[in-house]
Sequence to fold (162 residues):
Amino acid sequence: MKTAKQKSRTKIKTRAAPKNVEPDVPYRKPALRSEAFARALTDAKGCVDDRESLQALFSEAAKKAAAVPREPFKECWPYLQTMLRLVHAHHRGEYGQIPNDALLWIVAALNYLIDPFDLIPDKTPFLGFVDDAAVIEFVVDRTRQTLDEFMMWETVGERTVL
Fold:
């Protein structure tokens, strides 16, 4: 016979990773298991091939990044800035060497950043950007090579319009 504590444990359901995402991806942080992140991924799929949507995303995300406190983002702050530059260069047709899956993840991260009603609303004092930073850090880990290659491209000056 189960105790009341055991019964309550069996009723608790954990949220699965968003659909259409590789099953081996560790979704340990709540922000990555949230409806807001699933929505950001879905929105990203519709945005990556739409130049107007990419431009609008870049504009909103650049504004938001300029206004957020840097503390929650720690080491991933330079990579957030790189994501913005990469999306902008890709949108303008200057940089096309980005794999589709990396672009999808980066666009999803920026979508999450601009969503004011994500897992922890941005207006929440001290904690409002912790979930945003967790998503950015996760996406940086998944796309670090792509981001590093883009920074190398910027540095070397291999800028050619596609």
Q: What stands out?
A: Residues 130-156 form the longest helix (27 residues). The chain has one domain: 29-156. Confidence is low (pLDDT under 50) at residues 1-25. Residues 2 and 92 are 62 Å apart (CA to CA).
